[in-house]
Write a structure and sequence with these properties.
Alpha/beta knot, five-stranded parallel sheet, cytoplasm, tRNA_m1G_MeTrfase_C_sf
């Protein structure tokens, strides 16, 4: 099954962008996943191809119109399409690795990239959009967030990563941040690779990595489920 991504945007030229390179790009070329960038303005009805209007109740900025967006979504995701409909939004539920894995295991996604002050709430409700945030900060539009989401998902598709185990030992996969990594040379500017990592004792290496992950998580992300008080 090919993972199909449909991105609704005012700037389709932003896609595939970085997704056309490296692992995601090779997978796109191989047909492991597909991407279509749909111009929202194509569904406007006036000669100016208007997609936004002033906010009800007054205030600064503009709001994307429900009627125009509904036509775009219905075109990209007709009745019977099982793909989730996502809206990249700073007020959305934070994107977690667990949700990324769920998306990677599915048929794809329809992703709406918001602009201006946001999207008419009636459209969100009428089309069942799942609001998704990639962090507590504001972007100029949903396109960079969509690229981030798709990059996270595509790398987990079967066959995209050369070593499937790589995806199982990364940050967030077990509630912890990933342990530090080292490689040659053994000495760099007076800093040595920890002795245990070159000992050949795989049991001790695994224990060291686990302890390092726990310490790093406790220090930087105590909110993660794998964070535990450090042992004396």
């Amino acid at each position: 099954m090919t993972f199909k991504a449909s991105v609704l945007t005012l700037y389709p030229e932003m896609f595939p962008g970085a997704l056309g390179l490296s692992l995601a790009g090779r997978a796109l070329e191989a047909g492991t996943w597909s991407l279509e960038a749909i111009q929202i303005r194509d569904f406007a009805t006036d000669r100016h191809r208007t997609v936004d209007d002033t906010p009800a109740g007054g205030g600064a900025g503009m709001v994307m119109r429900a009627d125009v967006l509904a036509k775009a979504i219905d075109h990209a995701s007709p009745e019977g399409d099982a793909r989730p409909r996502l809206l990249m939004s700073p007020r959305g539920k934070p994107l977690r690795q667990a949700r990324v894995r769920e998306l990677a295991a599915g048929p794809g996604a329809v992703i709406l990239c918001g602009r201006f002050e946001g999207v008419d709430q009636r459209l969100i409700e009428a089309r069942g959009l799942e609001e998704v945030s990639i962090g507590d900060f504001i972007l100029s539009g949903g396109e960079p967030a969509a690229l981030v989401l798709l990059d996270a998902v595509v790398r987990l598709l079967p066959g995209v990563m050369g070593n499937a185990v790589s995806g199982e030992e990364e940050s967030f996969e077990n509630g912890l941040l990933e342990h530090p990594h080292y490689t040659r040379p053994q000495e760099f500017e007076g800093r040595e690779i920890p002795e245990v990592l070159i000992s050949g004792n795989h049991k001790k290496i695994a224990a060291w990595r686990r302890a390092a992950s726990e310490a790093l998580t406790q220090e930087r992300r105590p909110d993660l489920p794998g964070a535990q008080p450090l042992l004396e």
